[in-house]
Amino acid sequence: MTDAAALLPPPAPGRSLWQDARGRLVRNRAAVASLVVLALIALACLVGPLLTGHPYDKVYPDYVRLPAGLASHPRAEAVPAAVARIAARIRATAGDVSVENGIVRLALTAPRPIDPRLLVYFERSDQFGAARIVESGDDGRRLVVVVPVKSLRFLFGTDGNGRDLLTRTLMAGRVSLSIGLLATTVALLIGVTYGATAGYLGGRIDMVMMRAVDVLYALPFIFIAILLVVFLGRNIVLVFLAVGAVEWLDMARIVRGQTLSIKRRDYVLAAEALGVPTRGILTRHVIPNTLGPVIVQVTLLVPKVILLESFLSFLGLGVQEPMTSWGALISDGARAIEAAPWLLTVPAGFLVTTLFALNFLGDGLRDALDPTER
């Protein structure tokens, strides 16, 4: 008997719900691709502003509403006009303008001697560096100067204030994704705990807890946001508080509905019969089995939170200048869509891509976490 038992193959190791879910998620190509896209967007928003070469709040008055493109600025054909404008401020006339290897050579003439200190106007511009006098004549009324050209690139163009749109879009992504993730996390923690407790305890406790949810539903969201601004002032933390204080209500209702059906399952009844405390039943049996609908709701809640933040910023209650968010950039771009369509398409492209990726990832997580698929 012992020899026969020794010949039997060892029992196969068991697999947990999380192991099965991970395997099904990896086989879902759309979900994996969406996860990669989200990771790339998050990495670009985190590291990108350090690599663009433009501070997010730097204003370039000479490059207002510049279209997107790969060419460097200023372009060669624009240099003579730019030099003429600066010469006019010096009260001189620019002539013999030539550009070679990024260096502009020109002659400044004026009816009276030119003060060399006025050449600082070249350095103060966004297009040129510090000017250097190489020749002087006519008692200072004629100066030959050389000026280096500042080569700047704006891959996504500039906004109405002359700020680099790529840098601002990536910085806006930091704000929007942070608000979406943190506010959703707050709503997730409060809503899951509240809904699971109400659904499992049932009876009068459930009734009282859900009536409190109904009362909070009756309060307008914008009213709560304005109250927080009045009492606490304007800062980005208010966005987390205002959104997190409202968005957990939907999560609580979803989790309560799932809990009402789960608490009648045999494994929950068996745990109750064995004397497992209520906290243990909630954390080990009820909440893990509600994760499928919860994850799907989370993937829908993140873009909803981003849109709510955009609404608050549009009203002046959210992110304040010079900081920005995708919603604020889209609002600015919508007002200038005819004159500068890239101001709308660039941040909207980032937002739409993020929303699609979140939706595909949510569908994949829903299928992977469905216990009936084991």
TrEMBL record:
Record membrane topology: Multi-pass membrane protein
Keyword set, alphabetical order: Cell inner membrane, Cell membrane, Membrane, Peptide transport, Protein transport, Transmembrane, Transmembrane helix, Transport
This protein's record includes keyword Methyltransferase: no
Entries under InterPro entries matching the protein: BP-dependent_transpt_permease (IPR050366), MetI-like (IPR000515), MetI-like_sf (IPR035906), OppC_N (IPR025966)
Residue stretches spanning the membrane: 30-51, 175-196, 208-230, 236-255, 339-361
UniProt superkingdom: Bacteria
Domain (ABC transmembrane type-1) ranges: 173-362
GO CC annotations on file: plasma membrane
Swiss-Prot/TrEMBL GO biological process terms: peptide transport; protein transport; transmembrane transport
Places the protein is found: Cell inner membrane; Cell membrane
Membrane in keyword set: yes
Similarity-based family: Belongs to the binding-protein-dependent transport system permease family. OppBC subfamily.
PANTHER family according to UniProt: OLIGOPEPTIDE TRANSPORT SYSTEM PERMEASE PROTEIN APPC, OLIGOPEPTIDE TRANSPORT SYSTEM PERMEASE PROTEIN OPPC
Protein name: Oligopeptide transport system permease protein OppC
Species per Swiss-Prot/TrEMBL record: Bosea vaviloviae
